[in-house]
Amino acid sequence: MHGDGGGGEELALRFEEQRGRLRAVAYRMLGSPEEAEDAVQETWLRLGRSGAEGIGNLAGWLTTVVSRVCLDMLRARASRREEPYGPWAPEPGGPGEGNVPEERAVLAESVGLALLVVLGRLTPAERVAFVLHDLFALPFEEVAPIVDRSLPAAKKLASRARHKVRGTSALPGETLEGHRRVVEAFLAAARGGDTAALLAVLAPDVVRHADPAVLPPGMPVELRGARAVAEGTVLLRERARSGAVALVDGAVGIVVAPGGRLLCVLRVTVAGERVAGYEVVADRGRLRGVEVGVLGV
Length: 297
Fold this sequence. Notes:
Blueprint: H1 6-30, H2 33-50, H3 58-79, H4 102-111, H5 113-119, H6 124-135, H7 140-146, H8 151-166, H9 173-192, H10 195-201, E1 202-210, E2 222-224, H11 226-235, H12 237-240, E3 243-248, E4 251-256, E5 264-271, E6 274-281, H13 284-288, E7 292-293
Parallel strand pairs: 1-6
Antiparallel strand pairs: 1-2, 3-4, 3-7, 4-5, 5-6
Helix pairs in contact: 1-2, 1-3, 2-3, 3-6, 6-7, 6-8, 7-8, 9-10, 10-11
């Protein structure tokens, strides 16, 4: 950015000091690095049009503006009835989102893929209220005017969002943690394409079912036995790298979300400290009916 003079240059420098935080806010709201960058750029343009005169708290002003930009983008997305799920990933080994670029993977890991998926299911106002208050500690007195709600209504929005983000576990705490350790071990082995580690975590009679849409041509929708399931899982290891452990229909499962956009979920059955079976749900109609929550929030 280049200012027209000393004042313009100073304003640009002050904006650049805030850019990283603004991008983080926008990314958590929009779930897309590209759209987040667009929102930040629009915020800069609005600052340029208004100038810094009369802005006592620039950081607060910029947070308000980028939040309103994001809210408008989310509402436009909802009015177009856009699918909350991204395009299908290409087959393993191909270019594109099937092989998550390192920068995207780091970004998704730092924010939490499961959180991005759940945020994508909130209403625009719920998402903005939750992100600003719960993730960035903005007081409700500042959140309320951004979402155009009264103070009690803004609090209710965030509370409703919080409940959706956490989901509802059907398992007692100790059982949930035990299942989580098993599913995390399974996901780590799947990401690494480690057949031996998969065989160690899979039950001998494990069964895997999958929606055809998510499978490479010729792969059967059902696999039986630890060896067959391990080998089938290794073939899809590129997609496993876009996976995260989450609460799926009240139990510990996995969401697969390249670039933060939901591709499929794995309903995992754990028995005797091993994976007894898993179902890959990728059909868009079925995905809408799956309840997803974030573990450990």
